[in-house]
Each structure stands twice: as structure tokens, then as C-alpha cells.
Amino acid sequence: MKVFKFGGTSVGSVENMRTVMNLIADGEQKLVVLSAMSGTTNKLVEISDYLSKKNKESALSIISSLEKKYYNVVFDLYATKEMKEQGKHILEERFEVIKSYTSGVFPEHGGRALLAQGELISTALFALLMQESGYNALLLPALEFMKIDSDKMPDSYFIKDKLNSLLKSTPKADYYITQGFICRNDAGEIDNLQRGGSDYTATLIGAAIRSEEVQIWTDIDGFHDNDPRFVENTKKVDTLSFKEASELAYFGAKILHPQTVLPAMMNDIPVRLKNTMNPPDSGTLITSDSKTKGIKAVAAKDGITAIKVRSGRMLNAYGFLKNIFEIFEFFKTSIDMITTSEVAVSLTIDDPKHLNEIIAELKEYGNVEIDRNQTIVCIVGNMISEEKGLAAKVFTALEDVPIRMISYGGSRNNISVLVNTNDKKATLQALSNKLLNS
Ligand code: ASP
């Protein structure tokens, strides 16, 4: 059975929901993962922020406009009076839960429970639409089988076990509809797989049921060789290996949630990125095949902080780097790029939450310099660190851009450079002009 995942825009309006229905209803059994309708999760985040700041009035005003929007959706989505009533009933139930958080003390887990309502609504409305249209569609509750452990990592054994028994015990359906993004944590509370996590749900499910293919449907026809928001004339990439796709997703390609590739890679399940607005296009196919050599694409990740520690104590000393890395480990802050010289080490982080504590500890070891507002530009492909002359081409392409750090040879799939975010667009454009399109 194939797994199809549709993002917020794909189910973002009545018209789009109908498009998705017509697209999946080809008689072939599938499991369909849906996001919340576009904009909903952001609204739920706002509601939760207001409630944690005890601003009940502002929360209620957003709830009321969201509720109005959904009643209009229900009115337009269904043809019969009976189904409109059932749709309203779904909304009553969900909005009762949302409103329940506006009275009393807002609990710690309240935000996560609120965030889950978007997917619970979109899937229930969509399954009802399919049923009204005469399809054998069934809702599978993700909160019964999606689970994360105490480290917030998906519990793949639990997911596999629960989902497969759920599929065995529920009546046979042609189309199973389930929620992306949401799950339970080790305490049994409602939780999630982080923003954009529906893609991750899809490959976790694909791995659990040993799906023949996971298709991620968005509003663009696959991975592009550069970021189309900043660069003109980008081209779709037809195939990528799992390693290339995960580098691109991790280093900023917005089309895929960074962790999505891992379950597919570990279980060798092909992932295809497809465009809801252009279904005949074959999209980008991601598999274990890594035969095609050369540079495939470029991606950029903003919000990077570079940290340099300079110390005479590093000279010919062992254990210096270990001490430095332990500080980051202690503060659960992951490091993306590293470069060293004999007396200094530079590294980057994307989560500055504990930056001040980290700096204070690092000062024990030497002089610390911080550069904020940095961007990692990542050049991804196969065997690129082995190809003669390729490094020269990259650096010639970037001759006009000041580069803060370079990482080369860490893997066969990636050359990364760190630039000031103000130089990002110029960097991406130069790589397109002089490397990808030359
Ligand atoms: N609805 C969630 C979000 O907006 C998850 C997703 O769409 O993948 O982040």
C-alpha cells in the first residue's frame, strides 16, 4: 500500500480538498496523511501564546475567527444537509476542546494539545467528504499509534506494532486517512513531531507498513537545484539519493522536513515528491541509488551563529576539542559546521537558546568571538569531494562573496560554506549562474 501525504496548502481550501480527493480516488488502496488546513497551526500557536500569557481575550478573538472560517468550509464542502450537519458536529467537538483551554490555568501540555486540533479537524472533514462522495474511506486515529519517546524520537517499534494491528482490526477500506504531525509522548500526552512534521509522519508510516512508495504532495514539482524564492531559473531535480535529499532538507530546502528521509532510508522505501497542481509530472524520486555523480543542488539554512574559540592552550594539546564539545553536549545544542586551526576552532549552531551559558563556559578555555546572522550554503551531490577541479569551480563561482567558514571532505555529498545572511542571495545566484547552469 502506498502512503500519500498532502500538506496544508493542498487541503487549504474546499476546492483544493476536492482536488486531493479526485487525485487519490483511483481505485488503488492507499494510506493518506494530511496536514492541517494552511494557516491553522499558526493560528493555534497564537492562541496558545496568548493563553500562556494569560491574555484570554485575544485568544478568544482568534478562536472565534477560526471557528467562523471552518463553519464556512463545512457549508461549502458538503452537498447534503445531513453531511453539513455531521461536519458541524465535528467542528463543535473540536472547538469545545479548543475553548476548554481558555478557562482555568493553562497547563504546560496545553499548547501541544491545541496544536493537534488542526490535523484532527482537516482529516475528519476530509474523510467525511470522501464518504459523502461514495468512497470507502476510513479515519485512522494517529494518536493511537504515533508515539515519541523521552528523547522526543519516534518509537518505531510501537508505531509498527500499533499501526499494523489497527489496520488488521479495522474494517477494510480503500482509503485510510490519518493525521500528520501529531503523536503522543512517553507520558501519554498529546505531542507533535515539530513544525512541518507531517512529512515525517508519512515516512514513519511508510516504514511501519513497508510501503512500496511514499509520495509527498506539495505545491511545487519536487526538489529544485536552488532555492526558487531567491534565485531565478531553478530546475527540478529528477532523482536524488537518500543521502543527498537529507543533506538538502537539513540544510534548508523547505520542501521536506529534515528528519523525513531517515525512516525511508533505513527501510529502503522510495520517496517521491509530487505537485498537487501538476499531478502528471513525475516529481523528484528519492531512492538508495547513488549512481549519478556530480553536483545536484544547493540549499541555504539561515539563523546560524558562528562561535570561534581561540586559545594558546590548543597548540599541540590533546583533549581540547573534547572539552569544547562537551559544553555543547551538556546544553543539548547540536553543532553543524566545524573548522580548526592550530590555535582556534570555529563552529556553528542553529539553536541559540543556551548561547549565553555556552559562551560563559567556553571562556574558561580561551577567547570567544560570536558572529550572528550567518547562513550555511550547502552544495549537495554525489562524490563531489572526489571530483578533480570541483572545489576550484565552487570557489571561483564564489570569488566575490566573503566566506566565513568552509567545510569540505566531511562527506562525499556536501561542500558547505558559511556566509553572512546579507550575502545569501548573491551566493545562491552565483552558484546557479556559474556552477549549476554553466
Ligand atoms: N500543521 C503542522 C505545521 O504547520 C504540520 C505540517 O503541516 O506538516 O507545522
In short:
The chain is of the alpha/beta class and 438 residues long. It is built from 14 helices and 16 strands. The protein has two domains: 2-219, Carbamate kinase, CATH 3.40.1160.10; 296-436, VC0802-like (2-Layer Sandwich).
What is the secondary structure topology, with strand pairs?
Elements: E1 2-6, H1 14-24, E2 30-34, H2 40-52, H3 56-77, H4 81-100, H5 110-115, H6 117-132, E3 137-140, H7 156-169, E4 175-179, E5 182-184, E6 190-192, H8 198-208, E7 214-218, E8 239-241, H9 242-250, H10 261-267, E9 271-275, E10 284-287, E11 294-310, H11 320-330, E12 335-340, E13 344-349, H12 355-362, E14 367-382, H13 390-397, E15 405-411, E16 414-420, H14 424-436
Parallel strand pairs: 1-2, 1-7, 2-4, 3-4, 7-9, 8-10
Antiparallel strand pairs: 5-6, 9-10, 11-13, 11-14, 12-13, 14-16, 15-16
Helix pairs in contact: 2-3, 3-4, 4-6, 7-8, 8-10, 9-10, 13-14
The protein binds aspartic acid.
Describe this structure in words.
The chain has 438 residues and is α/β, with parallel strands linked by helices. The protein has 2 domains: 2-219, Acetylglutamate kinase-like (Carbamate kinase, 3-Layer(aba) Sandwich); 296-436, 2-Layer Sandwich (VC0802-like). It contains 14 helices and 16 strands. The chain has helices at residues 14-24, 40-52, 56-77, 81-100, 110-115, 117-132, 156-169, 198-208, 242-250, 261-267, 320-330, 355-362, 390-397, 424-436; strands at residues 2-6, 30-34, 137-140, 175-179, 182-184, 190-192, 214-218, 239-241, 271-275, 284-287, 294-310, 335-340, 344-349, 367-382, 405-411, 414-420. An 8-stranded mixed beta sheet has the order 3-4-2-1-7-9-10-8, sandwiched between helices. Strands 12-13-11-14-16-15 form a 6-stranded antiparallel beta sheet. A two-stranded antiparallel ribbon has the order 5-6. A hairpin with a 5-residue loop joins β5 (182-184) and β6 (190-192). The radius of gyration is 24 Å and the shape is globular. 41% of the residues are buried.
